[in-house]
Design goal:
heterodimer; A: 307 residues; mainly alpha; MetI-like fold; 12 helices; B: 304 residues; 72% helix; flat
Chain lengths: 307, 304
Amino acid sequence: MIGPSRVAELDMPGAAIEGASTRPAQSYWNESWERLRANRIGMAAGILILIFALIAILAPVFSAVLTHFQPQTIDLSQTFSPPGGKHLLGTDELGRDTLTRLIWGARVTLGVALLTVAVSLTVGTAVGMMAGYYGGWLDDLLMRLVDTVLAIPAIFLFILMSILFRPTPVSLALIIASVGWGQVARLVRGEVLSVKQRDFILATRSIGARHLRLMLRHLLPNVLPVLIVAASLGVGQIILIEAALDFLGLGIQPPTPSWGNQLTNAESYFFHSIWLVNFPGLLIFVTVLASNVFGNAIRDAFDPRLK
Amino acid sequence: MLAKYVARRFLASLVVVLGVTLITLVLMDRTRGTYVPGIDLNPALRPEDIARLRADLGLDRPFYIWYLTWIWGVVHGDFGRSMIDGSTVMSHILDRLPNTLELTGTAILIGIVIAIPVGVIGALRHGSKADHTLTVVSVAGFAVPQFWMGLILILIFSVTLEQHGLPWLPSSGAYSAVNGGDFIDRVEHLILPATVLSFFYMSTWSRFIRSSMLEVLSQDYIRTARAKGMSERRVVYLHGLRNALIPLVTLIGLELPGLVSGGLVVEVVFGWQPARRPAVRRARSSDSIFMRTPQDLRFCGGPK
């Protein structure tokens, strides 16, 4: 997209830029991928997230091989046993195995984050694209709606909605996404407004392309880099929000384990059972850290201007 | 020109305010329900008593009447009363607001005061060891769950220090219940929660100042200033920092609503309010009148 034309421009007669045309033409995606691969810390963070995702997907296997416990098995003779021995990372106030609950909690926590990102991106892109593309009263209407949603403090909406809809992983993701789409919509709208002015859109329109085709085939690919960056930077924040809601008792309800709700009760036991606080907290921290670092790497790779 | 712009923005924000109240009240309407869960099951209450109670509280009125009555009240400075004890919503807010502002205000202030030098050092020694270290700290501050950091700080500075007979910091509350409330006592209580909250602000803003400063320092007028022989100190602080801080003002402005609601999680961990999680608790007991106002208040704090 960018590559070939730039090389063509440089490939003019003139001694000073003799070597410029020897660089092979590469697509935007190839270039970005190369840049991303060169970022070692970013790649390490990405691989760490992949590993966590794998553990989440294969939770039954891992808990069968590693821990031999079920996440909701209560054993009142084994409450608060410290890490080591039969329970690798200790047990909680009901004698449930911490490691098992963390492994299964990864499913909930990462799953909610993924679903939230997917929903916010889909809705936000649709709204932002329509607002930016059609403009006029539709733009005004949709953007005032976005302003309104973003003006309500998120935590207040979360509190209200988690009372209205009993929070399950799916409903919790929808609750968080009900705020997240607004920012995506603003972002996409701005991007569409600038891409819309370019000549190739005019050219496409002049050969008779319809609105839907213009939006999906020509605008969307150009907005995609911004979306990828927004998504990868958003995951960490969503995990933090979800964990905080779980901690406040407004998120995933026990006995379903999530990383955040394992800390809810830990608050009262952490004086004597520090592992109940440390392991879930550390996991959230590392995961969010990894997704932020990976998100930054993606941003640097896909949009060097922003660095 | 400006007047027209201001008028347009004002109209737009009016639309947003009405939208906010409408969305909020639709959600509230869904939750207001029977006011006390299980009131219908109380054998001591006859059905006509229940009906009378509901009528007194306005629960039998249709939604739009409810909404209009409320808007009318707000315009006249009346935010409503609690359905549980009849106290005014305003009195509850005024009860808690000073504590909240004390915490968030301090945290934002400390955040700015630390973020500026951290960001400037990062930009001036771009790529050095100091820069890398500060970057790592900022990135960590962005990723650490506030409730976890709070619990760990309590464990170290309240529990462990006390166990070893060393001076320790209080772990909860805004002041001591007994013989407390003087300045020193409040500051002691403030240290841990303000540390957690300001760490977050510091991380965000220092990154921002760093990149803003880097951009400013690469501008032509900085080169001009250097070329005419101005001392490096004057270049950096007079021309560089002053211009780099302009976007920060916007950023801090956007954070103003956080003065009211930004510290919620920290407030919960450190038991900052006399009654824990008032909004959450009220919501659980369907005291819907009460729920509306903290957010409207926050909204007034900073229109986006």
